[in-house]
Each structure stands twice: as C-alpha cells, then as structure tokens.
Amino acid sequence: MGLKEEKAPKSLENIMFGGLEERRKCTFPVKSRIRVLLAKELKKPERSGSLPSSSKGRYLFEERDSNSWDKIPKIDGVVAKSSKSPPSHKIVVNGKECINFSSFNFLGLLDNDRVKSAALASLRKYGVGTCGPRGFYGTFDVHLELEERLAKFMRTEEAIIYSYGFATIASAIPAYSKRGDIVFVDEAACFAIQKGLQASRSNIKYFRHNDMSDLERLLKEQELEDQKNPRKARVTRRFIVAEGVYMNTGDICPLPQLVELKYKYKVRIFLEESLSFGVLGEHGRGVTEHFGINIDDIDLISANMENALASIGGFCCGRSFVIDHQRLSGQGYCFSASLPPLLASAAIEGLNIMEETSEIFHTLKEKCQRIHKALQGVEGLKVVGENFSPAFHLQLEESSGCRVTDSKQLQDIVDHCMNRKIALTRARYLEKEEKNLPPPSIRVIVTVEQTDEELDMAASVIKQAATLILN
Amino acid sequence: MPRYRAGEAPGGHSSVHRIAMNGGCRNENGGLKNGYVRNGVCPELLHGGLYKRPFHEAFEETPMLVAVLTYMGYGILTLFGYLRDFLRAWKIEKCHNATEREEQKDFVPLYQDFENFYTRNLYMRIRDNWNRPVSSVPGERVDVLERFTDDYNWTFKFTGRVIKGVINMGSYNYLGFAKNSGFCADASAGVLQQYGGGVCSTRQEMGNLDKHEELECLVARFLGVEAAMTYGMGFATNSMNIPALAGKGCLILSDELNHASLVLGARLSGATIRIFKHNNMQSLEKLLRDAIVQGQPRTHRPWKKILILVEGIYSMEGSIVRLPEVIALKKKYKAYLYLDEAHSIGALGPNGRGVVDYFGLDPRDVDIMMGTFTKSFGGAGGYIGGTEILIDYLRKHSHSTAYATSMSPPVTEQIITSMKCIMGEDGTSFGRERVEQLAENTRYFRRRLTEMGFIIYGNSDSPVVPLMLYMPAKIGAFGREMLKRNIGVVVVGFPATPIIESRARFCVSAAHSREMLDEALNKISEVGDLLQLKYSRHHFVPLLDRPFDETTYEETED
C-alpha cells in the first residue's frame, strides 16, 4: 500500500543535538507517563480537590467549570428576601419592619381602605380574571368607565387602557411609527420606550438628555435631508418621544421648548408620564399641567397606573383621532387579556380620591422638597433629580470607574439603612440591554404617607451611612 | 350536498370522520384518499408509535363554490369601499372619522390613507360583533349590555338594558374558574384585604412578595419542572422573555400561525426567523436540516442556537401541536423547544396539565414551558417553567423582573387556589371532575356540530372549536343572529384568519351543562340553516389541506 509514515518536522534543538528528545523519552518513560496522567486528572474538576492548595493556583480551570461553582444568587442582594406584607408605608423585609422608601406608591393608595373596598366589591361582582381579550367578551363596563374617567381627568377626548404598565408605551409607539419613520428620543428614555422603538423598526435618533439644542440640530439635519428628497419626506412620519419625569434620572423634560420645536419642525410628541401622572401639577395631571401647556398640543400621553394609582396596567390618552387607532393596532391591547375588573375598580376609586383631595399633590411636593434639602451636601453622594420629583437617585460623587465596586458600595449603604429601618433599593437595570446605561444609583421614593420626622430620619440615616461607608 | 336539518343527528355518518386517526382505521393501501390528514402525511408512517393516543385533526377543504363566492363578496365590498371613499372625499357622504387638529393639518399624515381602508369599509360594517360590553362574571352565562348605533357602527350608545343570561361560548373559561363566589374568590378577597390590589415595585426591587414565590413553587410542581417564574401579563411573557433566550446568531423556527406575542418576541430578539407550515413536521424538519447544513447566511457559521416556537392549542385553528414529533425532531437535531401553552394548560390532558400531559410525555423534554393564567385559571398573567438554570438565568435577564411591576396579589391568590384545586391538593376531586367534564363537553359539542354538517376545524379533543363561515357577510350575520338567540359567540375574519376562512369560534367550558350545550347547539343549527352554513360534504371529502411546498418564508431582522 502506498502509505508513508509521516514524520513530524524536527525542532531546531532536536537537529542540533541529534535526536536528544527521542532518547530522553526512552530513558525516562516514567516521568512523561506521570505527567500525562496528572494532566488528565487535573482536567476533571471533581478530582482537582484532592490536590494540595499550593498546586491548585497554577492550573487554570476551564471557565465553564468555574461558572458552575460560584453561582450567583437568584435575585442578588437584599431583595431576594421576599416581603410578607404589602409594600405600602411600612414594609417587612427580612423579618424587620422598615419605612418604605422604595415603592412607587406616591399617594399611598395601595393600602387605602376605600380603594380596597371598591376592589372587593368589584371582585364580588365580576370575579378575578376576564377570560378574554377586549374584543372577545373581555370588555367590562368598568373598563369603559375607567377609560371615560381617565379621559375626563386628563381633559382629553379619549383614553385607552392596557393590562400591563410596561406594555403600554411599548405597544403604543409601534402602532404609529413604522419602518422608515423617524423617531427622536431622549437618550435617557426608560426601557419600555426602548423596547417600543425596537418593535417599531423605525429610524431612531437619540439626542442628549434634555438637550434641546442637540434635538434642534438633529431636526435641522433632518430638514435638510427632507429638502433633498421631498417625495420621501411627505410620507415619513416624525415623532419625538420624551418622558415627563425621567425614570432613569429624575429630571423633568423641558416641555415648552419641545412644543415649540414640535410646531417649528412639524413633529409629533409622545410623552411617557408614568412618574409625573398623579404627581405634578395642581390636580396631578402631570407635566402638561405643571408647565401650563394645552394638553392637545401633545399628541399622545401614556402613563401607567402602577405608580400613583397603585393598581396594575397603563393607559394612553389624547385625541380620538390618535387614540382610537390603537384599538385595532395596539398589540398589547388587542392580543392580551383585559385588565382584571377589580384592578380597574381600584383605579377608578384612586381617581376619585385624586379628584377629591387635590391638596395631596401639594403635600407630596413639600415632602419631596424637604428630603431633597435634607440630602444636600451628603459626603460622597449626590442627589440626581428635580427637587419636586418623588422618585430621585443618589449617585456616587466620585465613581471608582468600576461598576461592580460602585454597586457594591451603594448596596452597603442600602443594607446599612435597611438595618436602621429605612427600606431603600438600588435602581436595577439590565446592564447589557440598556441603550445608555445610567450610572449605578440608589432610588429614593417619597410618598405622602411618610411623616416629616421619618423623612428627616431617612436623610440622617443615609448621611450617616454615606460617611461610614464612603470614607 | 347532503345536509342535515336542525337537531337531526346522523349517527351512521360519524365513522366517516374517523379516517385519519393514527393507529385507527386507515385505507389498506396507505392511500390518503380522505381529506382528513393534514399535510398529507400519516404520522404513523414516519414516527410510528410516537403517539400513545389517537390523534385526529380535521381540516375539510373549502368547497370551490364557497371559495369563489367569498372572493366575490370581498370584491364587491372593496368596490363599494372605493365608491364610498370617493363620496366621502367629495363630501357627498358624511364622514364619521375623527379628524386631525386644524393646527396640525400640515404635518405628515399620521396614517397612510390606505391603511384604514379595511377598517373603514369592511370592519366598520360589522363592528358591533366585537367589544361587546359585559357586566357580570364571564362565566357560563354572562350579562351583555345592549347597545345601538344610529350612524352605522361609528359610535355606539347604550340603551340602558342588559341582555341577561347570554350563554357564553366566547370566553376562555375552560375549567369554569371564573366565578365571583366560592373558595377561589374568597381566598383572593382575603389577600386583597391584606395586600391591596397593586404592588408598586418590580420583582428585583421591592415587589417580591411571598405570594409570588408560593405561586412559582406551585407552578413548578404543577408542570413537573424544576423551577418556574411568573409574570404579570401573558402577552408580555412571550414578548419580553424570548429576547432573553435568543439573540443575534440564533435561529428561531416559528409556526406560521403562532400568536402575535410570539412573533413580537422573536422579532425583538434580533434572531433570524424562519417560518414553517402550520403543524407540518416535514416543513419543520426541512428547515432544521437546512439550518444545520447551511449555517448562518453568508458566513456559513453554525447557528448559535436553534429555538422552535410552537403553541399547545392554536387558538384560531383549534389544532393541537404534534408534540411527540416535535420533540423527536428537536432531539434529533439538538434544537431547543419553546412551548406556549396559553390555551392548552388546564384544558388538555387527563390531569389538566396541558399538552405534555395529553400526550403522556416527559415535561423535561420541553426546554421552555410557557403558558398563561388568563384562561383556565381565571386569573391574569403568564409563567415560564424549565430547569433551575434556565429560570435563574431568566430571573436575572428577563425584562419584566427588572422593569415591570410584579403580579397583583389577589390575582396571584386566585391562581394558587384554582391550581391547587386542579391538582387535587385542596382535598376534593372537584378539579379532576372539571377536567373530565371539559373533555366530555368538548367531544360532545364537536361531534354534534360535525354531525349537523358544519365544517369544523381542529383536533377532536381541543376545546377551541372553530366553525367555518367563509363569507364576509356571514360573519356579521352569524354574530348578530346568535346574540338574538341569547348566545354569545366570537366571530373572526381577516386579518386574524386567512382572507377566505372567516369563522366563528366557540370555547367549550367545564361549566357548561349538557342542557346549555344542547340549547346552544340547537340555536347554532337553526342559524346555520338560516345562513346556509352547513357546507360539509360527508361523502366525497376531497384531499383537503394546504399541500406542503418547497417555498418557505424567511424573515430577517436588520
């Protein structure tokens, strides 16, 4: 047979010393055997334990093996411990009763007896689930009532409710903006907006956070582009998407300038008001009321009912011309089961309370300003967010440059406060998924239920924790 | 065409419908003369012995005359639509459409003009069949608010009257847990008093309640998997978790009739999506083989991951996924399987544990078990079950744990109690009886409808029963006539179905008594005669089904 034995090319050393390598193997076969055996053994992770610890360091284990050893806990940190009580004013975490500074229960409606009894009455009438989407026997009279009430409260023509807060803006954006359309978005936009934009497949342009000159630059660029191709420009819809109060920064958007730009460049505005609805303005109608802007100037306002209203779900409101389109095109509306009637009733009762006691918004604002003032000048921590925003962030003044260390330090502060009966939480993000990952922070949430003493106490505990941990 | 009168049960003909069960009576020569085998393949030929029970699914071919008339119907509707749009444009006919603000007239139009043509001219004519407002429990009987319109369905006004006791054939209340009294409602009322309605925080922050953990353990036990995770909305369970499971460089193989949430999730993931014919294992195998042979487009690198997306029961077809074959394929080609049991959980299987239980398979063979609580459990939300590693991964990477509010506590409690009831952990055999009752009701209802001569799609064990209407005018007529006779049905047309296959859909529930079903059946038969819906041709059933062809539809995300 034509088989030839293949010879490995000899190394330089081998040539020089005339086959020393082969001879060595013949002379000391035992040593090489042992070496091979040892290497084999070391590859098995379960065997490596028997080796002395000094030799362990020298052999690197495969990454996937080591991953399986140091398993990260399910939900890291303190929150992995579940609470056995409702996350209202007081919360029991790890068996310790704390004052809650971490749930978006701004108006304290979660534990409100009126809301609860309204929900209970609804439960006794309709049961729990709706067993169908809105189109197929899932529209209840309470849904229609809630939509009407929301529209009336916001002073718009129409409102539409979704059964999940996250899905509200994420469904609303792709209902209007399609492939080829252009959306101008603030780069600090929350994750739900990012997902909505992704689903819309539109052309997305980010402008710097709250930087109107940057937005205008982009709009001008687009205008020039349009002049080159006017036929295309006639069918390209343009939108600005902004948040009332930004989830990730606690800032308010400069709405008057946005409206100005809207008419100047003929762009529509979509506003996400989850944190400002039921918070800002004299009657809690959000940023439009705060700035005294005609609500019809905003094409679509979306908010969730999971924060101020302390229910579940979300809604969009605006003119019928805009909103009605979602009843057939909003995916989260058409294809999902409708909101459980008891939660709709809870939201209606929440609206009643908001309408009856509009001084509640003033109280909330005062409380926000109080803790803001108290937290100024904490060593090592800076307060990020407006002084009237009930949800704001505490960031490290000087970042170590490493996200993990920063988070660790902030978590230590959170733990320290937790031991002193102040429940805080770090703001959680999916770090790999966020478009512009905000720096690590502690989110502090003010509610009307917190007394002035509690606010002062929280501020002093945070101060104490910061000095203790950061210095 | 032989037709049967209302209520007449042609017992002798039912055998005609049993042709295509595997292991059952098939023609000797293996010829597929009947039209009852979808895809033209008998599963036993390919994967003999995979099925532990008869599997028969019927999709009778649309009669030619009906198809032609249906197309003509759409043609006439479209022509009239153009005519009326013309009249509206010249302000001869009053236009009821909401209009743009004066200040924004010079903006780029928000909608393309043609976009709403279908809505304006076709849907608007029969809009009264959808969104009917309900004012009671969505149980076996339901109270519907009466509405009327004086502007051809553009707006509705309430008369103030309530149509009481409409037999509900539309809600997904498969096991009859939608109730406002009884142990489930009592338990959730208690939890509502204790916890309130909302949560106001996310799972990762402060919204991780003991009730959620209890539910997750229970779901894992119910499904027979290592761990489970629950979410507040069924739609979002799909659309927010598939992106966590697949990404660029992954391939998603999706059934052509998958629900919008699966489609959205697949799109958001950024993976390449390829679509196989509905429940067609040849098509799936071909795609799998191609994917492995060819690898990624252009680079020809192997795919990082292949994920097959299927549903347990398809909500518009009433068909059950060929799970044993899918699992065999998935094992053969080392793909992952994502099973959406939105309609099948609770509604299928001797223990009510979904399609896996129905076929007697091992739940560990399905990598990702997803389902919703809206339907059988009378709650809201969704779950994902799987291995401990998978769920731990999802807890950290799922969009909804980090950004969406957690489940409402009273809803959670409703699911816990109803699930315990199905499992028999409440110490009664109540749940088991309901599961059996549902199976019995389903078989009875389907058999009677087929015997009456309607074309009924889907598997004989599926509680979703589509009845074919075909013509667009009959969609509206059927819905209205049935409501007149105090029966609430769901009618669907394009775009939820192929353009000529408009249908009515019944959802059988364990709460329906035999008398109710009989009443409904009699009325259906009556309306069927009125509208001439009994299309089925028992004797010469032609080879039906959409033949498998080589063209596959590919969609890539850019």
UniProtKB/TrEMBL annotation, chain A:
Catalyzed reaction equations: tetradecanoyl-CoA + L-serine + H(+) = 3-oxohexadecasphinganine + CO2 + CoA; L-serine + hexadecanoyl-CoA + H(+) = 3-oxosphinganine + CO2 + CoA; dodecanoyl-CoA + L-serine + H(+) = 3-oxotetradecasphinganine + CO2 + CoA; octadecanoyl-CoA + L-serine + H(+) = 3-oxoeicosasphinganine + CO2 + CoA
The kind of enzyme this is, by top-level EC class, is: transferase
Q: Which UniProt keywords apply?
A: Acyltransferase, Lipid metabolism, Pyridoxal phosphate, Sphingolipid metabolism, Transferase
Q: What is its EC number?
A: 2.3.1.50
Pathway, per Swiss-Prot/TrEMBL? Sphingolipid metabolism; Lipid metabolism; sphingolipid metabolism
Aminotransferase class I/classII large domain location = 97-462
Q: Which cofactor does it need?
A: pyridoxal 5'-phosphate
Pfam families on file: Aminotran_1_2
- Of which family is this protein a member? Belongs to the class-II pyridoxal-phosphate-dependent aminotransferase family.
**What is the role of the protein in this entry?**
Component of the serine palmitoyltransferase multisubunit enzyme (SPT) that catalyzes the initial and rate-limiting step in sphingolipid biosynthesis by condensing L-serine and activated acyl-CoA (most commonly palmitoyl-CoA) to form long-chain bases. The SPT complex is also composed of SPTLC2 or SPTLC3 and SPTSSA or SPTSSB. Within this complex, the heterodimer with SPTLC2 or SPTLC3 forms the catalytic core. The composition of the serine palmitoyltransferase (SPT) complex determines the substrate preference.
Name of the protein in question: Serine palmitoyltransferase 1
Q: Which organism is it from?
A: Ranitomeya imitator (mimic poison frog)
TrEMBL record, chain B:
The chain positions of domain Aminotransferase class I/classII large read: 165-524
Cofactor(s) needed, names only, are:
pyridoxal 5'-phosphate
**Family, as annotated:** Belongs to the class-II pyridoxal-phosphate-dependent aminotransferase family.
Instruction: Establish whether keyword Acyltransferase is in the entry.
Output: yes
Q: What is the lineage of its organism?
A: Eukaryota, Metazoa, Chordata, Craniata, Vertebrata
* PANTHER family assigned: CLASS II AMINOTRANSFERASE/8-AMINO-7-OXONONANOATE SYNTHASE, SERINE PALMITOYLTRANSFERASE 2
Protein name (record): Aminotransferase class I/classII large domain-containing protein
What CDD domains does the record tag this protein with? KBL_like
